[in-house]
Amino acid sequence: MSEPSAKKDDRPIVWFDIDNTLYSASTKISQAMGQRIHAYFLTLGLDDDAASELHHRYYTQYGLALRGLTRHHQIDPIDFDRKCDGSLPLEDMIFPSESLRQLFLDIDRSKFRVWALTNAYRTHAERVLKILNLTDQIDGLVFCDYAEPNFVCKPEPAFYEQALKVANISDPTLCYFIDDNKSNVLAAKQLGWGRCVHFCEHGLESVEGGKKLVINNSDVGSSEIVSVTNLEELRSVWPEVFKQ
Ligand SMILES: [Mg+2]
């Protein structure tokens, strides 16, 4: 699912989700992805309505439409990735941001590591980081390994547990995490991750295929999750993370 395990390092880790977190959902990349995924469902022989229904069901049930596809259909996940994420004209949709890069540069690296934690496959994740000019700011990438049979993804606990192993960190309280998908944030919180933040842009909610994500309520109250509408707010939410 990701890099070989990192060297032992006692620094806490700041984990960033990538899609719709490092760039705005207003880019409509999710919708473009959703259209491609919908087209892929149509190739399974479903009509338009059935494809929409199944796409939405798999997304809400598994956190990723592809997770449902690989469980219930004979499909090649790498082919899926190439046709969906791989065909997105990302270079025309997202652009590097000086302020975002500065935010990463201002993280105190003597005290913190910075990793990305994504449900995308490696190729998409690396492509986005490169376009955003952040490749050199990420110490490690934990991605969803579509090549692995029965791969796991957020918000499945096993995905977070694997992430800790790969990053070679045993204490989840040393993990900071930000994601635009509230279910993913709640899952991390339930697993004892230290400082979890929901990135929720004004007027924009997590969507895939144009449908609103159903947020699972859990026994971890939403009130324990800090919400930010702009990544700059992390400077005040996590002051210890940034150079003084
Ligand atoms: Mg996201």
Automatic annotation (TrEMBL):
GO molecular function: nucleotidase activity
One BP term from GO: pyrimidine nucleobase metabolic process
NCBIfam families for this protein: HAD-SF-IA-v3, Pyr-5-nucltdase
Protein name in UniProt: Pyrimidine 5-nucleotidase
Organism: Pleurotus ostreatus (Oyster mushroom)
